[in-house]
Design brief:
23% strand; 22 strands; alpha/beta; 6-stranded mixed sheet; 455 residues
Length: 455
């Protein structure tokens, strides 16, 4: 999906994003010699804040600035700007006395709470061939890096080890942050649950389990640090859940058991420092997965960290209902952190659901703990790319900022990721040839952030 401002094919502008109440030097430079601005040439620069409306209609509004700037010997135009408030600006560059601008670019000012917070796009719910997906875990990760993702997990059904397999292959060779994870499926509970980043497998706490197909109960395939709670049999698990279900205030035994399992899973996700994600309650399988009143009960009791407001189906009832439900409950005072994930079962264009959703997280760094912390603090937004026209779900403030990023940053970012993803795929069959290229690419997104974000 190419929604990039047309002038970004001709000019670079940096930084694109900066903090308010600071003098920031902004550089505009031609990236195509056909549009060279000229050396030592003076231009008029106008900046207009988008939320202040059209100055021809509302001339009394603030947020409009006019200044003069001169290019250097290399044709770079440097402008010092200080924004008093958060928001997006349109920057026009005019020849002296001209009515039509030479170029129109956009920049964004952020409030102080965004200091040090960079945008990272990822997927927290993905499947591979190890359960019911179409490709190997490592192939899925390579394909998602090629599509512009900064972080992801492989959350296979009932299996933790596939995410560890992918991490082992790419951890030293790629900047894609592959986080351990699993989709948790336990007795008595049809409510799916995503364990993103927990240090041990929750599926593997109950024996027998699908995670054992890798190497039995070997701790290295069900924990990242060699530590996990003692396992129990399915019979012991059911007995424990039956006891806990007595304390759940629901009229039906099936729901009491289901909720007791959710609580138990969430306790372990917290214990393992993961992120507990409540996914797709409006999935049709073939009926709506959860009844409305049971969904309300879960949502309001909140045995989870984040709500998967956008997920992996293309029919309207899935994401349409989840989005409407999120805003309805938000108006009622229930406002959990949110994520968007593909729940993909195929990482190539053969799967129409490959890239339909994602999450942008505003975090200090692209590391698991920082991402989880930022999501819990509600510094995330869900991205809907089912159609050619993207949609955003979340806090109004972050919707405006993410829209700017979708059109002015991610098209550039994604080109760099596409190169890395290509060679990650090559690495799987020709490691000796691809390895030096991938090593040379390491750090490219961090360098891009340092250039485009003055945070």
């Amino acid at each position: 999906m190419d929604v990039m401002n047309k002038y970004l094919y001709r000019y670079d502008i940096y930084p694109k994003v900066f903090l308010i109440n600071r003098d920031t030097e902004i550089t505009v430079r031609a990236i195509d010699s056909a549009f060279f601005l000229g050396a030592d040439k003076t231009y008029t620069v106008k900046l207009s804040k988008l939320d202040q409306a059209n100055e021809k209609v509302y001339p009394e509004r603030e947020g409009r600035y006019t200044l003069s700037a001169t290019t250097d010997s290399q044709g770079a135009l440097k402008i010092v700007f200080n924004s008093p408030t958060e928001g997006q600006y349109k920057l026009y560059v005019f020849e002296p006395d001209a009515e039509k601008p030479v170029l129109e670019l956009f920049i964004y000012a952020l409030a102080e709470d965004m200091k040090g917070r960079f945008p990272y796009r990822g997927d927290l719910h993905v499947h591979s061939k190890r359960s019911d997906g179409s490709e190997s875990p490592e192939k899925v990760c390579a394909n998602y890096r090629a599509a512009g993702y900064d972080f992801m997990t492989v959350s296979d059904h009932g299996r933790y080890y596939p995410s560890l397999e992918a991490k082992a292959i790419f951890d030293q060779i790629s900047d894609l942050n592959i986080v351990e994870g699993e989709e948790v499926h336990l007795s008595y509970n049809n409510v799916h649950y995503v364990n993103f980043g927990g240090s041990y497998s929750i599926n593997a706490l109950i024996t027998p389990n699908n995670n054992q197909e890798k190497a039995g109960d070997d701790i290295k395939y069900r924990s990242i640090n060699g530590s996990a709670p003692e396992t129990m049999t399915k019979e012991e698990f059911k007995e424990m859940i039956d006891e806990r279900a007595n304390n759940v205030d629901r009229p039906h035994l099936s729901e009491r058991r289901s909720y007791a399992v959710m609580e138990w899973i969430y306790e372990h996700i917290k214990r393992s420092n993961g992120l507990g994600i409540f996914p797709h309650p409006f999935w049709l399988c073939p009926m709506q997965q959860l009844s409305d009143d049971y969904l309300d009960f879960i949502y309001e009791k909140k045995p989870f960290d984040a709500f998967e407001v956008l997920g992996g189906e293309t029919y309207y009832q899935h994401n349409g209902f989840q989005t409407a439900y999120y805003y309805k409950k938000k108006a009622e005072g229930f406002d959990p952190p949110i994520v968007g994930s593909t729940d993909t079962h195929g990482s190539t264009p053969l799967n129409k659901g490959m890239l339909i959703c994602s999450t942008i997280v505003f975090a200090g760094e692209n590391k698991k703990d920082a991402l989880i912390k930022a999501i819990k603090e509600k510094y995330s937004i869900a991205v809907d790319t089912i159609s050619q026209e993207y949609r955003l779900v979340g806090d109004y403030r972050f919707i405006k900022y993410a829209s700017f990023l979708m059109e002015n940053y991610y098209p550039i970012h994604d080109k760099a990721c596409a190169c890395e993803g290509y060679y990650m795929n090559e690495y799987l069959t020709s490691p000796e040839a691809a390895s030096p290229i991938l090593k040379a690419m390491k750090g490219q997104i961090k360098s891009m952030q340092e250039k485009y974000f003055a945070l």
